[in-house]
Amino acid sequence: MVDSLRIKDTRSEQQLFASRASFASVIVCVCLAIIVYRYFSLQIVEHSRYTTESEKNRVHVRAISPKRGLIKDRNGVLLAENRPSFTLGLVKERTRNLQETLETIDSLLGIPEDDLQRFREELRFARPFKAVPLKFNLSEKERAVLAVNKHKLHGAEIVAELARYYPEGPLYAHVVGYTGRINQREQQAIDKDRYDGTHHIGKVGLEKQYEDILLGEVGYENVEVNAFGRVIRELERIDPKPGQNLELYLDSRVHRAAYEALGENRGAIVAIEVRTGGVVAMASTPSFDANKFVAGVSTKQYSAWRDSPDLPLYNRSIQGQYPPGSTLKPIFALAGLHYGVVDTAHTVRDRGWYRLPNDSRFYRDWKKNGHGTWVDLHQAVVESCDIYFYDLAFNLGIDRLHDFTAQFGLGQRTGLDIPSERKGILPSTQWKRAARGQPWFPGETLSAGIGQGYMLATPLQLANATATLARRGKSMQPRLVRNIADERAVVTNHLENSEADWNAVLAAMEDVVHGNRGTARSISRGLDYRIAGKTGTAQVVGIAQGEEYDAEALAERLRDHKLFIGFAPAEKPLIAVAAVVENGGTTGKVVGAPLVRKVIDAYLESPQQGGEALAESSLQ
Question: pLDDT band at residue 588, thresholds of 50, 70 and 90?
Fold first, then answer.
């Protein structure tokens, strides 16, 4: 009974309450301190960071692609321009389900597998909140379908931009080149800030060579967006700087004449303005439509071009390497005169064949019974006598032949402002030792003496050498673009042959076309000016001794290549041209020379007729 009536201990309870209240107060103070500290950290210490993060959700920076520079010929004709185009892009961060969105778009428009693959590759390198292109060149109907279904396509946006367009399609594809979508390898190499506003880059030709100049500088705009990522208003804008236009030496009338002259043939024609070194035509056939590459060529189409035996993607003008054949005989004749091995009165006995001392092999002339008993230099060039040049090459030796011919730009790149130029082969004893690990043999000198054997040259090199002949030994670096570098012609070399030597060789070249026995006399009919030129033939397959070349008995691709070089007017040259027609060796038919005449006609009939006052001053 006593325990139940125990007196309450008020003091103990007060102490207990006080200790509990103190502990709770400490807890509250600690929590309050944490809250105050966190509030201070958020509002003061990290204010800038969270303000920026908040602005990122509301304000986005968007790149504005610059207008790519135009490419024009010397008369202002557009060869590459920009046209309005609409592109469908996807912003991954704004899509609710990327795969579902892709499937929806595919069901609405039908997305080719190539485009889907390219999209996934580009998505891997895309910056956050940047639209990755999925489909280019949207039609009006496609844009309407996307607009109606916009509520289903979160993260999809249609962007209006300028796309590259080549008005003439295949005509200038090898020279101007084309732009294409930036691939994975290029993504790793380019300055991403500079290409932030574009999905394209120059791939080949002038588009690649002058990419930095044509591209321009990207601009930017700050835009405010709502919760769905749609733009509400523009806050700030920095305009892009357009790329610089390119003005070429190329003359569209002359280039078209060259392209159409080649027709269905595989081959190339290059024409160079003698006084400036400017390339006025550079045609290669067959060609391809450069516009197919802009939005992304299909695998099927690319494979068809790549695997075609006609090699339409191959720029024969600068990449095709052919034995120059007899087109080099005027240069070899100059070499003989320069070194004093022959003079204009020197003759060689021509029995239709030539033999080296103590050698049983017969080196035969293209003309079975020869060109007469004794042949001098003039006749040897006019009638393309192989026997005379076998003897000349043997007496010169391969190294002197090499050293002199090199001064015309053979065996080296010309330095033309376009990528992928090949340098050909100008053989010598040193070259063969380095390339083949073998000594040089005398019989190989004879083959080189008629432009065969190891010797290879591009059509551009032949045109450049022809221009040097037309200038009487003054070499210039050929150029395509006229408004970027110094417009004055760059003289690279000057041969020291006598005036008499030049007169003799160039007169013989003139008689190749206008002489009664010239190998290209058929093209002189109806000419009101004079052409100096030289025909050439390059064997594709060897012909055994004692056998004759019969084009009709050979498969078309085993027939000889036909070449021609020429300049005009002969007395005051304005244009130099070289033509190569693959497998054009039809029996009894002159092939290359008529094509060159068509190109020269087009040039001399043009309004500028070889250039303007700048050309006159460039050699002064």
Answer: low
Query: Using one digit for the tens of pLDDT, what is the confidence trace for 445-497?
Result: 999 999 999 999 999 999 999 999 999 999 999 999 998 865 556 777 888 88
Considering the candidates 284, 326, 384, 428, report the single residue annotated as catalytic. Answer: 326
Helix, strand or coil, per DSSP, at residue 354: strand
326 a catalytic residue: yes
Task: Give the bridge partners for 53, in sequence order.
Answer: none
For 384-432, write each residue's pLDDT tens digit: 999 999 999 999 999 999 999 999 999 999 999 999 999 999 999 999 9
- E strand or H helix that includes residue 285: strand 279-285
pLDDT per residue as tens digits for the range 188-232: 888 878 888 788 899 999 999 999 999 998 888 777 766 555 666
Its sign, for the CA torsion 319, 325, 327, 333, is positive
Please choose, from the candidates 360, 364, 333, 377, the residue with its C-alpha nearest in 3D space to the C-alpha of residue 547: 364
> What are the tokens at 587?
């029996």
Helix (H), strand (E) at residue 86: strand 78-90
**For the purposes of burial, counting CB atoms within 10 Å of the CB of 422, is it exposed (0-12), middle (13-18) or buried (19 or more)?**
middle
CA distance 381 to 374: 14
**Structural domains in the chain, sorted by start:** 62-247 (3.90.1310.10), 252-617 (3.40.710.10)
CA distances from 591 to 485, 585, 594, 606 (A): 37, 8, 6, 24
Candidates 325, 371, 370, 229; CA nearest to 562 is 325
State the pTM of this model: 0.83
Other C-beta atoms within 10 Å of 407: how many?
20
SS3 assignment, position 133? strand
